[in-house]
Amino acid sequence: GQQVMQIPQYQHVQEGEDFTTYCNSSTTLSNIQWYKQRPGGHPVFLIQLVKSGEVKKQKRLTFQFGEAKKNSSLHITATQTTDVGTYFCAGPRGGNKLTFGTGTQLKVEL
Amino acid sequence: ETGVTQTPRHLVMGMTNKKSLKCEQHLGHNAMYWYKQSAKKPLELMFVYSLEERVENNSVPSRFSPECPNSSHLFLHLHTLQPEDSALYLCASSQDQSRDTEAFFGQGTRLTVV
Asked: Do A100 and B103 make contact, defined as CB atoms within 8 angstroms?
């Protein structure tokens, strides 16, 4: 079945450093969604990418969808303590049945 | 806050108990989902309901029994659970399960089976 892997599993950065998480799917995706889960919280939708090679930005966050629509990345510029949490990518498997990636846990130290 | 409310937030139950998790969404969505989140494992889709009809059951053991009486409410009935069933159970909803739209998650029920 469809598998979605993310690397790295964990990332510790100093505040102000950049951060990137990579998402790879075993199958071609119609779209990729990104979610953020704060410690003790629930996943919250960040963005959806649909087109091959698409790049979207939200303030310090840059999302990219690969040309083959099998991989994606999330890059955070100049991390802040509010960026702490686990970032998940998710790809739909037949309609909106999302297969979530393994997640990247980000810790930001002052 | 999120439009999807789950109760209870925390639950401790013995292996012989029967309990139910409740989810309610106020977003007018047609699809609702149960996910399981265990430590160090990705979110696992358990059940999908579309317009109150179950459209997917991801090989979930029968000790988990979902119920969707209407498009706004979703239950997960639990009986004779095992300690390995301890996890965060998340309910989610989306506009339509056949379209690629974002999922809105509830805050989850932290379940501990003792």
From this structure: no
